[in-house]
Design brief:
This protein is α/β, with parallel strands linked by helices. It contains 15 helices and 14 strands. The protein folds into 2 domains: 180 residues, Rossmann fold, CATH 3.40.50.2000; 168 residues, Rossmann fold (3-Layer(aba) Sandwich).
Length: 430
């Protein structure tokens, strides 16, 4: 099967979780014998074309003119994606299916679908309404409407959790059977031959300090502010703790000010952005990983921590709520509640037997349910559904057209007979 992936991020460009999902899915599809082409944005000095272990990656620039705003930037990116895909089709032939990732590729996906008559599916990784707890500004409304357009135009829609299925059904009124729940996954070999590096660990904490780790974007919906608010209670009961926050985002200065105001800045370390190798090392060095999101469609970082053998504390919302079973594969806390976050962390800090059991169960769950073999198989089945629906739709149109033509001919013949009879009657009367 020839598959076209449209995405605004692909390694080495990593903005959120889409990049890793598209990368891992594409590589597994290629290993399974499929032909995968990715069209994405060219960031920095990355090559325009790259054969990434069998995945054909085409990158496009934005226009030379400076866009007025982010929406214009996205639109210009879509124009260039359409042009590049047209070149590829002219040289290599038509794709069997288009897989668009989030609203940022909606216009390219819709245009290519209708221009080349290719079935299109989309994955909605998150929604604008969910990220912002509602739609308030004109830009948010525009993005929300574009998300609706993408799901409307797609033959099949993929989401990564039952929570997201309910959300987009509520927001966009999609038919239940059109939405396919296919979770994200992790590479089960990610932490092979990665061990605790004590020299690396000492960059963030002393040997006697337990590392409580957060990895992710520093934005409101990730809930880091609630984790920082939980630290005074944690430190009151267990002094040798260091909170390490790895990531970048617009809330950095605000979070640093919060730690200062609470008088715990010496116990909170902002590690900044870490590359993939350092992220692997960081997980191995952590004692507990915390993901206190107030909105989280899935939560791939929690899977990574579970695979790395780090006990996790997550909010009881979204995909995180589906991944973790409280007291079995991790600990849950009430979303947005620092006191609850502190209680779950302290439980793990004091109960070593629980930690060992949680880690063992979590690893087993990740390997059984979130491996790319199963996920890729489910995704490929969705491609087949979309293609079959497209064929059935074309056949139905053809049958309808043939039936209309026959009816038209029949009607024309009946009209001729009627006219002839009329003429005969008039002739007889004359």
């Amino acid at each position: 099967m020839k598959i076209l992936m449209l995405t605004w991020e692909y390694p080495p460009r990593v903005v959120g979780g889409i990049s890793r999902v598209v990368h891992d899915l594409s590589h597994k599809l290629v290993k399974d014998g499929q032909d995968v082409t990715v069209v994405t944005y060219r960031d920095g000095d990355t090559p325009y074309f790259e054969d990434d272990d069998g995945v054909k990656v085409h990158r496009v620039d934005n226009f030379m003119i400076a866009p007025n705003n982010f929406i214009d930037w996205v639109m210009q990116l879509n124009f260039n994606m359409i042009a590049k895909t047209g070149e590829i089709i002219a040289k290599e032939g038509k794709f069997d299916v288009i897989h668009a990732h989030d609203w940022l590729t909606a216009y390219a996906a819709k245009t290519l679908k209708t221009s080349y008559n290719i079935p299109m599916i989309c994955t909605i990784h998150a929604t604008e309404a969910g990220r912002n707890n509602g739609i308030r500004t004109d830009m948010q409304k525009y993005i929300n409407d574009t998300e609706w357009l993408l799901t409307y135009e797609a033959s099949e829609v993929i989401v990564n959790s039952n929570y997201m299925k309910s959300e987009i059904q509520r927001l966009f009124g999609l038919p239940f059977e059109k939405i396919n729940v296919v979770p994200n996954g992790v590479n089960l070999n990610n932490f092979n031959n990665v061990y605790r590096d004590y020299d690396f660990r000492r960059r963030f904490a002393m040997d006697n300090e337990k590392i409580v780790l957060f990895i992710g974007r520093l934005v409101y919906e990730k809930g880091i502010q609630h984790l920082i608010s939980a630290m005074p209670k944690i430190l009151d009961h267990y002094h040798d703790v260091k909170l390490v926050i790895a990531g970048k985002g617009g809330m950095l200065d605000e979070l640093k000010a919060q730690a200062n105001n609470l008088g715990i800045s010496q116990k909170v370390y902002f590690a900044g952005y870490l590359n993939s190798k350092d992220v692997q090392k960081m997980y191995r060095c952590a004692d507990i990983s915390v993901f206190p999101s107030t909105y989280e469609p899935f939560g791939i970082v929690a899977l990574e921590a579970m695979l790395a053998g780090v006990p996790v504390v997550v909010s009881d919302i979204g995909g995180l709520n589906e991944i973790v079973e409280h007291g079995v594969t991790g600990m849950k806390s009430y979303a947005g509640n620092p006191n609850s976050i502190a209680d779950s962390i302290l439980t793990l800090l004091f109960d070593h037997k629980l930690c060992d059991q949680v880690v063992k169960n979590a690893k087993a769950k990740v390997k059984a349910e979130y491996n790319w073999s199963k996920i890729t198989s489910d995704t490929f089945f969705t491609y087949q559904k979309a293609i079959c629906e497209s064929v059935a739709e074309r056949q139905a149109k053809q049958i309808a057209q043939e039936s209309a033509t026959k009816n038209q001919k029949k009607s024309s013949k009946q009209s001729e007979v009627s006219n002839l009879l009329s003429f005969k009657k008039r002739e007889a009367f004359a």
